[in-house]
Amino acid sequence: MSAAWAQGAMFNPFRKRKSRVPRATWLLAVDAWIDSTLYEAGFRAREAWENLTIFFRRFRVSGWRRGLVELASEGFTMGTAGSIVLLALALPAFEETAKDWRSQGDYAVTFLDRYGNEIGQRGIIQRDSVPVDELPDHVVKAVLATEDRRFFDHFGIDFIGLARALSENVRANSVVQGGSTLTQQLAKNLFLTNERSMERKIKEAYLALWLEWNLTKKEILQLYLDRAYLGGGTFGIAAAADFYFNKGVKELSLAEAAMIAGLFKAPGNYAPHINLPAARGRANVVLSNMVDAGFMTEGQVLSARLHPATAVDRAGRETPDYFLDWAFEEVKKIAPKNGPHSLVARTTLDMDLQRAAEESVEFHLRQHGQAYRVSEGAMVLLETNGAVRAIVGGRDYARSQFNRATRALRQTGSSFKPYVYTAAMEAGFTPESIVPDAPISWGGWSPRNYGRGYAGRVPLATSLIRSYNTVPVRLAKEHLSIPVIVEKTRAMGVESELNGHKTMVLGTSGMTVMDQATGYLTLANGGLTGTRHGITQLVTHSGEVVYDFGRDAPGPVRAVTEQAAAAMNSIMVQIPEIGTARRAALPGIRSAGKTGTAQAYRDAWYVGYTGNYLAAVWLGNDDYSPTRNMTGGSVPAMVWQRVMAFAHQNVELKPIPGIDKPFLDAPPVVAEAGAGEADGEVAEVERPSTLSPRTTRLLLDFSQAFREAPALRLPSSPETLSSL
Predict the structure, then answer these.
(1) Is residue 552, in this structure, part of any structural domain at all?
(2) Pairing with 373, which of 152, 227, 504, 721 sits 20 to 30 Å away (CA)?
(3) pLDDT at 676
(4) Is residue 586 part of a domain?
(5) C-alpha angle 635/639/642, rounded to 5°?
(6) How many of the other CB atoms lie within 10 Å of CB of 95?
(7) Distance of CA 278 to CAs 168, 176, 226, 259, 262, Å?
(8) Which of 461, 468, 413, 459 is nearest to 439 (CA)?
(9) Could you tell me the CATH number of the domain that includes residue 300?
(10) Model-level pTM?
């Protein structure tokens, strides 16, 4: 009752009620509009589709024509998708175009050895660069007829030329013609390496299109003629004309132009100062290409065929090309960015040591290469003050300009162990610390020693001398860590990328020969790093010194404590005496070093040093094929021993830091060198006496002082008295 009363009390008959009709009408209107719009849109879409279908029925094909259409459609779809994928692969190469690529090779540097003798040049000598418009017509035609006769007709990629080259190669059943355009070759020279891979070809094609879009044909041709390598350490057609014929490029005859044009394909094979008959045969092919391309008639080239060119005799010329290539890159790093680009660089190269290093590598590869199935080698030789005295980047620069000493990443094997032991010495271990040489597992990895046996509890010194594998693994797993070892290796000057895997402690990471020499140099310097250098001075042609190593280079940095370096040296001097490197023992001189052998015998190393010099040696094959059981203690140790015995003649011997005396009390027992190696051959070559670095610097200062001193005035002649 009360609830009803309350409801009744709330009801007011005089209150005006709101009608809900307008709101419902509005919602119904919106709904109707939506329905009608959707219907109308659907109707018009069906109508448009019907009209479109009726229209395209005119193009409907059947039978074999339909197969062609379907095939073309699928080809277009797959081609578009493939182009997107290829573009994604080529994108990293375009990062190089963001740099100042035009000026990256603009340096023109004349190099001097440590005594001031000219040893070569690198870069483009701008005063010798001749504009394309001023080049003789037959010079340009000879290049285009051989390298890219449709250069002015394509846009970077010549599909017609590619089809022609493919046809010729199939007909000859070998590669007789290349399909790369001149623009593609320029893209490779400017931005890429000589690596033979599909990824490199893809990058090359896209970069060629980019060059064609951003440069004129004349600019592309100019860059190609100025920067291509043409053998003999020359870059550019102007330098080649001077080197081979002692002429300016404007003075070249047709026969000479044809011979130079033949060098673009393979300068190592057709260089006239190395193989004149092959160069003349190649020049004859160039002349035939000029006739086939319609650039000249047979009558116009007849005289050049009958009277082939003869190059200047360069038989006595010695050029340390691998060193110059590396030194040129060093100049680009240290030269003032906004300063002059035409410079004279005084280097640290010692030509006597350079010849000895080249001879040692070639001698032992010739003697033992076939027996051990090894074909290539590299070496870096430094003085312990950090001066790079020699670089051997391969057996023959004419055949391969790839510098294996500074660019090749090869597994180091056991030669990496000193970095691990150095980190252990800094962590509180000593050469007498006892560590078990016993089976060990680390995440499913169970390394074993070379001899498959175990020595039990041994001092650290013994484990490194005998090159046990389980001990450095145990040190890394139980006492150190991979990041600690990586950090210590980097601190010692190694720049190569380390993989950071636990197997790294046994040398599975790739390192360059230069990095190995730099890392071991830290131990040879008593723990100091940052002293390696190849350039002592950069001077302009007017005599202004723009860079001086002693003045501008940062000072050495202590990367390893003096105690740890001395402990490591005390161990490593025993390796050539009683360890795995007895073939590296020097007569009467104490040396330190470590051997290294990579997996499957693909790489063999020996890195060693005395108080005077350090040398890192690598032997292996470019295709990573295994050698015939070659270890670091065999041929690499012998290569090292031969050049170091020469280097230490007529020099004042210095002790290794932490080693009291540089001399042996008794002659070391040298292992047998193998067939064809005679112990007395090293002593037949005597190194001339050399001045010490201090004396050399003093003489240079004297010379500079004399040049800068004012000229002396002659006294006036005294008066003569007359007899009158």
Answers:
(1) no
(2) 504
(3) 32
(4) yes
(5) 135
(6) 9
(7) 22, 16, 24, 10, 10
(8) 468
(9) 1.10.3810.10
(10) 0.68
